[in-house]
Amino acid sequence: MIKILLNFSKSLRLFLPLFLITFSIQSHSNTNSWCGDIYGFKFKNGNTSVAITNNATYSINELPNNFYVQLIVSGYSQSAKFYLENLSTGATYNLTENYAPYTFPGGGSAWNYGAGVFKLKAKLYKYNYGNGWACDIKTVQFTLSNASSCGEIDGFVFSNGNSTLNIDNNTTYQVGDLPIDFYIESLTSGNSESVQLKLKNLDTGYTYNVGENYEPYTIPGGGSVWNYGYGNFKLTAKLYAYDYCQSTICDEKTIYFTLDNTVDCATLTGLEFTNGTDSLPLVDNQAYSVTELPNNFYINAQLDGTVSKIKYYVTNLDTNNTVSISESVAPYTFPSTGNSWNLGAGNFQIKAKLYTSTINYSGNNCGSSSQTYSLCDTYIYNVTITDPSVCGSLDSFVFTDGTLATPIENLQTYNILDLPESFYINTLTSGAVDKVKLEVTNLDTNQTYNITENYMPYTFPAGENPWDLGLGNFKITAKIYALQNNSNGCKTTGLVNDKDLNAQNASYSYSGGYNGGSNNNPVYSLCEEQTIYFTLIEESPCNLIAGTGTLSVSAVVIPLGGTFNLTVTPNGDAQLEDGYVLGTVLASVGQEVIYAVSNDLVINLPYLNGPFNVHMFAYDPNTFDFSTIAIGVDTITDVQNSIVANTICADLSNAGSQIVIIPGGLDQRTVNTEEKPKAETKSKLEQLVTAKETEDNLNVEDIKLYPNPAIDYLNIKIRLNEGEIFNYSITDLNGKQVNTGVVNSSLTTINTKLLAEGLYVLKLQSGYRTITKKIVVKK
Fold first, then answer.
1. DSSP letter at 457?
2. Cα–Cα distance between 383 and 526 in angstroms, integer?
3. pLDDT band of 197, cuts 50, 70, 90
4. Do residues 398 and 420 lie in contact, with contact meaning Cβ atoms separated by under 8 Å?
5. Is pTM beyond 0.85 here?
6. Euclidean distance between CA atoms 282 and 298, whole angstroms
7. At residue 246, does pLDDT exceed 90?
8. What's the pLDDT tens digit per position in 424-434?
9. Would strands 194-201 and 207-212 be described as parallel, antiparallel, or unpaired?
10. Which of 37, 204, 431, 604 has a CA that sits 20 to 30 A from residue 355's CA?
C-alpha cells in the first residue's frame, strides 16, 4: 500500500507542472476577453469632454453644452450600472446601460439633475442588463455649481457720473437729450478686471479702440467727454477676467445707435385739396373729379410738427412732365403761395420732401461750425384728376364677337371654349370719349402690345380682329381721352396731345376730328384709366368618375414595423378618359385623414390600428403629383379642394371600402370576415392575438396582469425603466378602441366595469418598447 502511494505521489509530481503550464496558457489567452476595466469618468457632449477628478468642483456654465457623464472603460463588457446620489438633497438615481458608450443619463441624454454635491458609483458587467458578477467598480465624488467664474456685460449707458440714460439697440438719440459732458459706460456684473471697447462710425468708417483696466469701463477712456461727433455708430465691448484684456473673453456685446443733432422734424400726416376755406383729403391712388373738388383748389401739406421748407415735385404720368417748387413759409402749398391748380386733368405723382435745419458740431466743446438743411423724409402720393365736363367714363370690358358677349371680371379665369367664337376684347365707355389707348401684357412672357383706337368700338386687337395672343395670364390697361378745348377754361399745360400719343404708340397711326384748336396738334385730356387681370385657358370638361373597388381582404394583421400590400379590384363603375388611370388612397374613418397613397390599385398599408377606408382616385399622371399630399395631415376634403383650386381634372371618391388594420406579431396574417360565420371570425382573431402574445413572451418577466379574467378592474404590474412612461389602449376584436390611459408607476389599476364581456387586446407602448397582451372580461 505504501508503495502504491509513493508511486502516485511520484506521478503527481511529474504531471503537476504540466497542468500548471497548461492552465497558465489558457488563462493568459482569455485575459482580454474575460472582463473589462473602468478607468474613470468624464463630462462629455459628443464633441468635447472634461475629465472628472475626485472631490473636484465644476461650474456648469463652463462644461460642454448639454453634457452627460460618460464611463471610461477598456476591455470586454456588455453593460454598466450607475448609482447616483445627490449628497445635498439625499435623492438617488439608478440606471442600467446595455450599449457603449455607457452614459448617465442614459442614451447620451443631457444632464438634468441640477447643481449640488454628487457621488456616482459605476459597476461594469460582462453581460447585458447587469447580469453576472461585476468586472470592475469605481466611485467618484464631485460638485456642480451654477456660479460663473467670469462676469457679464449687462448693457450700455450715456453717463456723466451723475445722471445716466440707457442705450437701446438701433435707437436714435438727440444730443440735447443726453447728460451734459457725457461718455458711454459699459455696465458689468460678476468678476472682471478689464474691457476692450471698439467704436466704429458707420458713416465715416473711422474706428476707435479703448482698453480699460479699472471700473467704470468707459469710452472715451477714463470718463473723458465724448468727442467722436455725430452719426451712426457700432460699439463692441469684450469683457476679460484679467488685466490688459488677457485670457479668455468672459462676455461680448455689440450695440448700434445713432447720435443726431437735428432740430425736431415734422411728419407729413397727409395732403389735402383746399382753397383756404373748403378742403377735401387727398387719398393715395384715388381718382377725383374736378366737380367734387373746392373751386380754385390747390394742394396743401398737413404737418405734425415744424419744418424749414418743403420741396414739391409734381409729375404728369401721362406726359412725364415734372414741375417742382420750394416752399419755405407756411402754408406749404402747390402751386406756391396758394395759387390755383394749373396742371389740368390726368394721372399725377406728387412727391413732397420735408427739410429742417441742422447744426454741425465737432470736438469736445461741441462748437458750432455751420448750419445746413437736412432732409427729414420723402412722401409720395399718386392721384387721378378727371374733368367730366369734357370726359366720358370707362364702364367695363367684354369678350365679344359683335353679337355674343361675356363680361370680363378682374382676376378671373376664362375657358376660351366657353367664349364667343373669333372673340376680341371690347372697351365699353359712356360720355365723351375721343380716343382709347389699350395696353395688353402677357404676364407669362412679359410681352406688351399697345394700340390706340380712335373710333368705336374700342377693341383689342384693333378693328374688331379676332384675339391672337393665345392662352396665359394677361393684364389689360385702358386709358380713355377726350378732346380738350381751351374755351373750357382749362390750361393745356400737362395735357396730352396727338404728338405725345404717337410717340407712345409708334407702331400705330390714327386721325380724327377735333372740336377746336389746331387740327395738326389737337390736345386731349385723360379722362380715366383702368387695369384688370384675367387668365385664358383651353380645357375640355372633366367627366371623370373614380367609382368604387373591392378589397382583397377586409381585415389584416400587420407586424410591428411591417407593411401589407393590399390589392383593390375596381367594381366597373369608374368612368375614365384616355390617359387617365386609377389610384388608391387610405384614410381614417370619420376625420378622413390620409395615411397612405398609391398611383395604382396596389396600396401599401402601414402599421396602424383600427378601421380605415380605401378610396378610389381617377387622375392623369401628367397633371397630378401624389407627393403633394401631406401624409398624416391632409384629408380627403383637402385633396378634393386642391383639385378644384388648381383646376386639375381628377376625381377622388367620397365613398371608400373599409378595412380593419390590427397591429400584430412577427408574421403577416390576414382575415377575411366576409361570408364566414361570426363564431369562426372570432376564433381566427383569437388565434392572431394568441400569436401576438407568443411574440411578446420576451417581456413575461416585466409585466403581470391580474385578475385575468377581469370583472370590475385589472391590475397592471410592470417593471419600468428609469423615466419610462407607457401609453396603453384596449381594443376589442372588431378593432374598436374602448379604453386608453397612461401607466407611469409599477402598479396601475384599470376600471373594466364598463367593458362588455369578451376578449380584448391590451397594448402598452413607451419610447423604448411595445407590449401586447390578451385580456378577458367576465360579467
1. S
2. 13
3. very high
4. no
5. no
6. 11
7. no
8. 999 999 888 88
9. antiparallel
10. 204
